[in-house]
Amino acid sequence: MPVTALTSVGLVVLWSSGFIGAELGTREAPADTLLMWRFIAAALLLGGGWALFRRRRLPLRAVAEQTAIGALSQGGYLGGIVWAVGLGVPSGTAALIAALQPLAAGALAGRLLGETVSTRQWVGLAIGLGGVALVVQGDLYGTSAVTPWAYGLPFAAMAALLTASFLERRAGAPLAPMDAIPLHCVVSAVLFAGVALTGGHAAPPSGGGFWFAVGWTVALSTVGGYGFYWLSLRHSGVTRTSALIYLTPPTTAVWAYAMFGEAPGVPALVGMAVCVAGVVAANGRAGRSARAAVAVGDTAGTPARCEGSAPARP
Question: Which three-class secondary structure state does DSSP give residue 280?
Answer without folding.
Answer: helix
